[in-house]
Every structure is written in structure tokens, then in C-alpha cells.
Design goal:
The chain is of the alpha/beta class. It is about 45% helix and about 20% strand. It folds into two domains: about 250 residues, Glycogen Phosphorylase B (Rossmann fold, 3-Layer(aba) Sandwich); about 210 residues, Rossmann fold. The chain starts with a strand and ends with a helix. Bound molecules: adenosine-5'-diphosphate (ADP) and 6-O-phosphono-alpha-D-glucopyranose. Adenosine-5'-diphosphate binds next to helix 2, strand 10, strand 11 and helix 14.
Length: about 475
């Protein structure tokens, strides 16, 4: 296999099954922030992407543009222990404030460890001499150290897309020392928010006795740099989509289908318990009950794309959400006029761009979220400068999108009041808020993120110039 000077290692290859099945192998990304973010920067980059070929395995894996794909295949037992088990039933809930009880099953650990070893070996095989290897997310937290042992010549980056919890929570983890040491095998550990780097420093001091500040941790005679690099989106792609004639026509059609005079609230999430969908539905039901909104003049569109359906808590969540949507529609809907349109299906990028533009209020209210790219996509799509964003304080995006109506989604009364404030805001207020957010995004797009991270990784800007250009 050809070796590359940049290797990305992520749990998933950025393809979804249906795209690969028909053999077309266009770059169709799977839903989820990580894949979307990296998709934007790698299209023109001579790199190799090491990743799992998905639940059902891809029919065919070829290179996409200049990116070479190196699939890692997992057995059913490995999927259960590594992906559904340790990654998504232990680490994911714990890292998201334990909003769902984390499950610790001892036998998952060995599978998580051995799958991480396999990813490290695959990366070692495709990385050229002194290459940069950029490891992504909580699935692969042991890979940086394993890779350093295999290939001390490499420059190793690690980026955590999800929150990194405070010591009180992290300390609950069985195998916490191995997990910490694993990520500290990197030269640079990047997070979405400053607080996460602070949490890591505290943990490194407490558990490893390391010398640690919020910028650097010294361990085994090496210095690991740390810092915040808030991830972003392909702003140019979303702006282009938003103005495409077929998308403009779709927006018109959506307004027509939803009711021309109706105020439209939109939410777009993976169907995940961190996204606060149930709290949002409760708030909406109470607004209907109290008569603050009426199906005659207002409608909610909730897109919830299926996710991790082999994990029991996700299946349970889906049942609860579908039950609640049914109850709300049963109680408040009228013939031809549901209170909520619920869509449990994947959307294309252009369909999403149209939906974002149809929203009077975009409701993004996760209980905890590393960043939340949906909020940024909504802002980028609003070429018209209109629309309100209701955004959870617990999403990383809240640090940047100062024009949003910030809300504590755990507080249903706050949710209700904030939704009403957004629905009733003046067009001038909304335009000023949107302008500020769009200005910020224009300068902080996905290329800026990758450039900032890679520049910090090699200190010279050489990597960033080579792979991202215009460094
Ligand atoms: P997470 O990474 O937890 O999934 P983000 O909001 O950061 O949350 O990213 C979600 C990504 O998935 C966004 O790029 C969004 O456009 C995409 N997405 C969300 N819902 C759908 C859907 N129904 N179909 C296709 N893509 C979706
Ligand atoms: C989040 C995680 C990603 C993950 C995505 C989709 O964005 O940070 O690593 O890929 O969710 O989840 P999935 O389990 O389908 O890959």
C-alpha cells in the first residue's frame, strides 16, 4: 500500500452504505459532525483515511478524489464490545455529563483495546517516514500511545470531538489511567473548548502525577501540548447550496407544504439522548397546552436521523420520542395540520439546506454537545439574514454564536420562555443577531480549524500549507 505523509484515523470511513452499494462511490458522508467536518478539508488533500467500513461493511471501497481509504473491518463481536459497548455505552454517556447512566462491562475493555491496537497498526502501515497522523475522537483514545510505540518517528495529533469531562466524572471510569496515558501519546491533544484542556491537566496531575498546565503536560520526559480548536463547517458549501435554484425551489415548496402563514420551528439531530429531544417536546407540548402556540399558526419540524440503533438506550429513546410525538399530534393536531412533523430518516445536504432556510426558529437544545455543527450549518444557510437560533448553553457552539438565544435545556420553563422570545423577536433584532453570527462563521470555517490545528501540530505551518493551502 502507498504510504502517505498525512493520515487521518477515525472510527468511521466517511461514506454511508447506500453510496457505496451502487458502486458510484461518490463522497456521500454519513451523518455526524466528525465526518462532515473532515470531509470538507480532505477532498483536495493527498491523504489516507483509516476507518471502519461500517455496520454492514461497504460493498466496495475505492479512493475518493485524492483520499485513499484504508478500511478496518470489525467482526460482530468487535462491533458489540468496542463500538456499541465501550465507546458508545461507557465513554459516550460519561463524556456527556452522564445524562444517561454509563454502562461498565468488564469484557468490553479487552475488545476496545485490541481494536485500538488494530487501528494503530493500520495507521503505522500507511504512514510514510515522519508523516503526520491525526487520530480522531473517543473511540480511538488508546491509539496515540500505541502508535508512538510502533512508529516513534511520526508526528501524532489527537482531536476529541466530544466533551472531555471534569475529574469527578472521569474518575468513575474503570481503566482511567490507560485511557489517559493513551491520549497523552500524542504530540498535540486538541479539544472543542478550553475547559476540556483544563480538565485533562487536572486529571494528568491527579492520576499520573504529571507536571501539567492548561497548555502542556509533561509525561515520561515528553511534552504533550493541549488546547482548544473549535471545529467548524464548510461555510462555502452551505452558502452555495442555499442559493442553488433547486434548493430555492425546495424552500418555496416547503413553505407551501407547511402552510404559508405558519411560523416554523425546525430541529435536526441524530436521534441521541444527548440532543435533548424529549425536553424540547415537553416544552412544545406545554406551549400548546397553555395556548401560547396554536397548530393554526405554528408548526414544529423534528428531523431525527436514526443512530446507533443496536444500542438499547437508543432504541428505548426512539420509542419514547415516537410515543410522545404521537401523543402531541393526537391531542393538538387537526386534520391535515399536525402539531409536529417527525422525520426519522437521512436527508441530503441540499434537503438540509432547504430545511434550514424554512425555519423561523431553529431549535438546537442538546443537554451536552462537543460543538453541534447543525447550529453552524443553519447560520451559514441563512443567506437571507433572517431566522432565529435557540441554542443550548451546553453546546460548544454557544461559545461562538453570540447572536443566539441561549437556553438551559434542562429547565423546561426557560426553554418555553426562550422559544417564545425567539418567535416574537423583531426582524431588526434577528437581523443584527444573524449578521454577527455569519460574520464570525465566515472567518472561522472548517479550513481555519484544520489550519489552526495542523499549524500547532508541527509548529512550522508547513503541514497546514501543504494540506490546507493559504496557511
Ligand atoms: P453529532 O456530531 O453529535 O451528530 P453535529 O450537530 O455536530 O452532531 O453534527 C451532525 C451532522 O449530521 C451535521 O453535519 C448534520 O448536517 C448531519 N445530519 C443531521 N441530521 C441529518 C439527517 N437527517 N440526514 C443527514 N445528515 C444529517
Ligand atoms: C459524533 C461523534 C463522531 C461520530 C458521530 C456519528 O459526532 O463525535 O465520532 O462519528 O457522532 O455517530 P456514529 O456512531 O454513527 O459514528
Amino acid at each position: 500500500m502507498r504510504q502517505s505523509s498525512l493520515v487521518v484515523v477515525a472510527n468511521r470511513l466517511p461514506l454511508d452504505d447506500s453510496a457505496a452499494r451502487d458502486g458510484a462511490c461518490e463522497w456521500r458522508r454519513s451523518p455526524g459532525g466528525l465526518s462532515g467536518a473532515l470531509h470538507a478539508i480532505l477532498q483536495q488533500t493527498p491523504a489516507t483515511w483509516v476507518g471502519w467500513d461500517g455496520e454492514t461493511g461497504l460493498a466496495r471501497v475505492t479512493d475518493i478524489g485524492s483520499v485513499r481509504l484504508r478500511p478496518v473491518t470489525l467482526s460482530a463481536a468487535e462491533q458489540a464490545g468496542y463500538y456499541e459497548g465501550f465507546a458508545n455505552s461507557t465513554l459516550w454517556p460519561l463524556y456527556h455529563d452522564a445524562v444517561q447512566q454509563p454502562v461498565f462491562q468488564r469484557e468490553w475493555w479487552e475488545t476496545y483495546r485490541s481494536v485500538n491496537q488494530r487501528f494503530a497498526e493500520a495507521a503505522a502501515e500507511v504512514a510514510g517516514k515522519h508523516a503526520a497522523v491525526w487520530v480522531q475522537d473517543y473511540h480511538l483514545q488508546l491509539v496515540p500511545r500505541m502508535l508512538r510505540e510502533l512508529r516513534p518517528d511520526l508526528l501524532i495529533g489527537f482531536f476529541m470531538h466530544v466533551p472531555f469531562p471534569p475529574p469527578e466524572l472521569f474518575m468513575q471510569l474503570p481503566r482511567r489511567i490507560e485511557l489517559l496515558r493513551g491520549m497523552l501519546g500524542a504530540d498535540l491533544v486538541g479539544f472543542q473548548r478550553e475547559q476540556a484542556a483544563h480538565n485533562l491537566a487536572q486529571l494528568a496531575q491527579k492520576l499520573l502525577g504529571a507536571d501539567a498546565t492548561d497548555d502542556a503536560i509533561t509525561i515520561d520526559g515528553r511534552t504533550v501540548r493541549t488546547g482548544a480548536f473549535p471545529v467548524s463547517i464548510d461555510v462555502a458549501e452551505m452558502r452555495t447550496l442555499a442559493t442553488r435554484p433547486d434548493v430555492v425551489a425546495q424552500v418555496k415548496q416547503l413553505h407551501h407544504d407547511l402552510g404559508e402563514s405558519k411560523r416554523v420551528l425546525v430541529s435536526v439531530d441524530r436521534l441521541d439522548y444527548t440532543k435533548g429531544i424529549e425536553h424540547r417536546l415537553t416544552a412544545y407540548r406545554e406551549l400548546l397546552r397553555d395556548g401560547h402556540v396554536k397548530v393554526r399558526d405554528t408548526v414544529l419540524v423534528q428531523v431525527a436521523v436514526p443512530s446507533r440503533e443496536r444500542v438499547e438506550s437508543y432504541r428505548d429513546l426512539r420509542d419514547r420520542i415516537e410515543g410522545e410525538v404521537g401523543r402531541i399530534n393526537g391531542e393538538y393536531g387537526r386534520v391535515g395540520e399536525p402539531a409536529i412533523h417527525y422525520l426519522n430518516q437521512p436527508f441530503s445536504r441540499s434537503e438540509l439546506a432547504a430545511l434550514y432556510q424554512t425555519a423561523d426558529v431553529m431549535v438546537v437544545t442538546p443537554l451536552r454537545d462537543g460543538m453541534n455543527l447543525v447550529a453552524k450549518e443553519f447560520v451559514a444557510a441563512r443567506e437571507d439574514g433572517a431566522g432565529a437560533l435557540v441554542l443550548s448553553e451546553f453546546a460548544g457552539a454557544a461559545d461562538e454564536l453570540s447572536g443566539a438565544f441561549l437556553v438551559n435545556p434542562h429547565d423546561v420553563d426557560d426553554l418555553k420562555q426562550t422559544l417564545m422570545r425567539a418567535l416574537e423577536a423583531s426582524p431588526e433584532d434577528l437581523a443584527a443577531r444573524m449578521t454577527a453570527m455569519r460574520r464570525h462563521l465566515a472567518e472561522h470555517d472548517i479550513l481555519a480549524w484544520a489550519r489552526a490545528y495542523l499549524t500547532e501540530l508541527d509548529h512550522t505551518g508547513r503541514l497546514a500549507r501543504r494540506f490546507i493551502g493559504r496557511a
